[in-house]
Amino acid sequence: MSHLLQLHEAIAAGTKTLQSLVDLDAQIGNAADLIDQCLRAGNKLLVCGNGGSAADASHFATELVVRFANDRTALPAICLASDSGILTAAANDYGFDEIFARQVAAFAQPGDVLICLTTSGKSKNLIRALEEAKARKLKTIAFLGRDGGSTIGIADLDLLVKSDSTARVQEAHQLLLHVLCEVIESRLDKR
What we know:
This protein is α/β, with parallel strands linked by helices. The chain is 53% helix and 13% strand.
């Protein structure tokens, strides 16, 4: 038997967190519906987050633009955390809190969906992006952790992973994003 206690503890904690996602069944269905309606209408997804959540946002956009499990038409998804020139110019000229809101102002059209990922719910730049999206009549989805922080309740739909561990929240967010990819691709097959 392994003597790496951290592995066993991580598996136990991860299993508990992932099992708790069953409570989000209705919210995930609603998120899939919002995304499906957006894409069927010819609109796009804008996705953002900071740090590991930025990587998760990029990963999700990649799965949609390129492919997840099936060869299919490319889907319009833009990761707002991916362009270093835009990010650094917006941070320099307007402040870090505006890096995503500025891009929402530039790229968003009514009918688009903004998806924000935050493990703490305390990211002011994500709150500003959600506010900008609301002003532009976008639907919004927030992937949250812990207690949702000051972000909870701002988006049209909150997907709250109730864990105090950033790692466990990120793992759960990744699973939820993959489930959304599966649902979206299965619905495309039925078009």
